[in-house]
Design a protein that fits this description.
This protein is of the alpha+beta class. It has five helices and four strands; from the N terminus they run ααββααββα. The strands form two sheets. The protein has a two-stranded antiparallel ribbon. The radius of gyration is 29 Å and the shape is flat.
Length: 141
């Protein structure tokens, strides 16, 4: 939208345009400064005014190479063990998030215990909303 978005543009772009930050007047009116300026609204965070910058790839590469805060590695791809450590969904073991080879239900939901089942007066098992309604009625709710 840019630094000088109209009220109509802001209303179309933001869910609560009145609560979104405004680009400061000195930024809007100064020649060349308003290029690349915009406003962002991110769920769960306050809105922000941002300014994008352009630089050739070589400039960014040089800046990152000089930075002492950028983490570096000679192996950017994670190993299977590192993936397993954070996801638990690999084939290396039957740990958390895994179903062992001896899973009798083959990944399907385990049936309810008999004490958790709800039956109608004629003995048929009730499921879903019918079971909830019957249980609520029995509880006097």
């Amino acid at each position: 939208m840019g630094a000088s978005a109209s009220d109509n543009q802001r209303a179309n772009a933001f869910s609560a345009p009145d609560s979104v930050a405004e680009v400061p007047e000195n930024v809007k009116t100064t020649a060349g400064v308003s290029k690349g300026v915009g406003v962002t609204e991110t769920e769960g965070q306050p809105s922000r005014v941002f300014k994008g910058y352009f630089a050739p790839t070589a400039t960014f590469t040089e800046h990152l190479a000089r930075s002492s805060t950028v983490r570096r590695t000679d192996r950017p791809e994670p190993t299977q063990a590192e993936i397993a450590e954070h996801t638990g969904m690999d084939d290396l073991d039957a740990g958390a998030g895994q179903l062992g080879d001896d899973d009798p239900w083959n990944g399907r939901r385990v049936p309810k215990a008999e004490s958790d089942r709800v039956y109608n007066e004629d003995g048929t098992e009730l499921r879903g909303a019918a079971a909830a309604a019957h249980a609520a009625k029995a509880a006097g709710a």
